[in-house]
Amino acid sequence: MPPVPDPSPAAASTAPATTRPGGPASSTAPLGPGEAVLAFDVGGTDMKSALVDRHGRVLGLRRTPTPLGDGDPAAAVVSALAELAAAHRARHRDVRPVAAGVSVPGLVDERAGVGIFASNLGWRDAPIRDLAERALGLPVAFGHDVRAAGDAEHRLGAARGYGDVVVLAIGTGIAGALVLGGHPYAGGGYAGELGHALGDPGGERCPCGARGCLETIASAGAVARRYTAASGIAVAGAREVLAAAEAGDADAARVWDDAVRALAEALARLVATVAPEAVVIGGGLAQAGPALFEPLRQRLDGLLSFHRRPVLLQAQLGDDAGLLGTALAARDLANHDASQPGAER
To answer: Fewer CB atoms < 10 Å away: N or C end of the chain?
Structure first.
């Protein structure tokens, strides 16, 4: 595919954006040396984008609203990616990306390059990789946002040195990623949906349609919602519930204990099935620190017998994990393409 010439600054996106000129760690270059790439981490509300140079510095990281096109949401998102790419290239004309990475939420077929379904973005069977390659004029590594974050935590963050890893992001819901034998495991796009594993057969109905999903008990959103239902006291989030529990509120203590118990039981099933060496937990609930990790570790230990006991680790890369993992995927693609017979070096 022929390269697209660097656009002029006038082509830059006009969407409101917040920008961190140096990126998450421009001075420490967390990605290390390699090919220059563009990276786009698309979320249901906003998307992060950046240019990574050959030194591994993340340049011009910005956050912009995700467009929600009524007629063709995938085309609207890809059009926004092209505008962002133009802005990054115009600002850093000395950095010439050779590939791009695009990560999205929902069900994703990474091999086919298709967004199977994303309820918050409104697409079904969208050929996002093909659309993005045409729009950007670059080969595109296409993947799932949480799997990208999990790969980054495995290669750059908390789980470095471990080959078999489970990564959980616990916020409004619960999303997961599996790394097995040092490689992300996608299961055709369906792997890692721990938030929709059974947590309570008699529990409440989940928005997904099933009953008693783990995230209806143990997500940060569920902790806040369940406490309000039990106590009649409206709270902004799980942090307030934990504070109330530590202050002696019986309803808060019960809701928090239910969340820890359900998480421990879900992890025990995973341990018996895939035997991870490490479990990395990020997202809003992980900010509770020892108040989450200590009782969770004790509960999990009590549920295991001969099994491999994983270390429980707090995620290190924060909100930028998905973007960094997407950049890693783009570099992997660039390295693969460069290694093919006849490739220009």
So the answer is: C
